[in-house]
Structure formats: structure tokens, C-alpha cells
Design brief:
alpha/beta; DHBP synthase
Length: 206
């Protein structure tokens, strides 16, 4: 059964955040809130976590996983980014955007797109997620909590606990965080390509 953590949305309890971070280090798969919707997250190098996310969401090996980063300095360790792209990404973070960029050697091969060698990165604007990332000290490997055959992500922590009780190890609930996933912008070719229109304003990339 998944552990259930009720977290204050504005002042997350440090002890709870520490417990969740410890479980991630021990290879737990969690469901957690972001500034767009709930997501599944695990440790960066967790092969078991990746396999479980693929199973829950029925994903193939072409799916772009996302590295959810605390800040721009951390993001820069995992993707290659030129000056023009840097300015565009910097102006849009933190926020509800995922950017697809060429991966550095810091990104495990199993996380990269098999042909393009790219990975998704984002910096969320969410107090609880930021507290967890600060405690963890590294990015979360993440994927939107959108179940197969459903049009919208799950939005309530208790419902996630009920439906995924035996598939995740913990549910972090800080209240409703919306149903719209991030806007996805692919910069891997040098120019902005809008892959998915979501919670982030796309006008600056058109």
C-alpha cells in the first residue's frame, strides 16, 4: 500500500518532505503535485522506477521522460543549451513548461530518446515540489500522471491513492493543482517547435 502524505501547500512540513526524499533515495516511486498537474516521480538512476512508470502509463521507449530540476544551474548540468535557447528557456522558468533539449553525459542513456539523444527538462513553480527538490539535492525523473485511455490527469491525492495504491509507494497531497499538463517546447533542432499546448503560454514561442 502507498503511504499517504498530507502536505501544507504554502508551508510544507520539513519532516514530511525529508521522509519523502528518503523514500525516493531508496528507489520509491511517488505521485506528487506540480504547478500544472500531478506527476509520477522517482530517483534519476532508478531503472525500476522507470519501468514502473512505463507500466502504469503504458509508454513505449520513444517517450520523453522529464527531469524536474530545482533551478537553472541544476538544469544546465543535464542538457546542452546555446545562447539563444538559453534566453528563451530562462525567461520561461520557473513555470509550466517542459523543454526538450540535447542530453549531456550526466543523463543515463535509458532516459534519452533512443534516436535523438534528447531529454525533457523543467523547473516547476510549486512550493511543495521545490521543497522536495531542495531536500533531494538532484532532479526528479518524472512523467505526467495521465493514465491510459484517459483525457485528463488525476487531480486529487485521495483518488490517486485509491487507484494506484499498489503501483506507487507514496502519494504527496497538497491539494488540487489543476488538470492541464505542461506546454512542451522542442528546442533540440535549434528552433522552437511546439509539441504540446498546455498550461504554459505558447505565444512567446510562435
Amino acid at each position: 500500500m502507498a503511504k499517504y502524505f498530507d502536505v501544507h501547500p504554502d508551508n510544507p512540513q520539513p519532516r514530511t518532505i525529508s521522509q519523502v526524499a528518503d523514500s525516493i533515495r531508496a528507489d520509491a516511486l511517488i505521485a506528487y503535485p506540480t504547478d500544472s498537474c500531478y506527476a509520477l516521480g522517482c530517483r534519476l538512476g532508478s531503472r525500476g522506477g522507470i519501468d514502473r512508470i512505463r507500466t502504469i502509463r503504458k509508454l513505449d521507449d520513444r517517450h520523453h521522460f522529464t527531469l524536474v530540476c530545482r533551478d537553472f544551474a541544476q538544469l544546465g548540468q543535464f542538457v546542452r543549451i546555446d545562447n539563444d535557447v538559453f534566453r528563451a528557456v530562462k525567461a520561461s522558468t520557473p513555470g509550466s513548461y517542459t523543454f526538450i533539449l540535447p542530453a549531456t553525459k550526466e543523463v543515463p542513456r535509458m532516459l534519452q530518446h533512443p534516436k535523438k539523444k534528447t531529454v525533457g527538462v523543467r523547473i516547476p513553480d510549486h512550493v511543495v515540489t521545490q521543497a522536495l527538490l531542495a531536500e533531494l539535492g538532484e532532479p526528479l525523473l518524472s512523467s505526467t500522471l495521465l493514465l491510459p485511455g484517459e483525457d485528463e490527469p488525476l487531480t486529487q491525492g485521495w483518488e490517486i491513492k485509491d487507484r494506484l495504491d499498489h503501483q506507487v509507494d507514496a502519494v504527496l497531497d497538497s491539494g488540487d493543482c489543476g488538470t492541464e499538463p505542461t506546454t512542451v517546447i522542442d528546442f533540440s533542432g535549434g528552433e522552437a517547435e511546439i509539441v504540446r499546448r498546455g498550461a504554459g503560454d505558447v505565444s512567446r514561442f510562435e
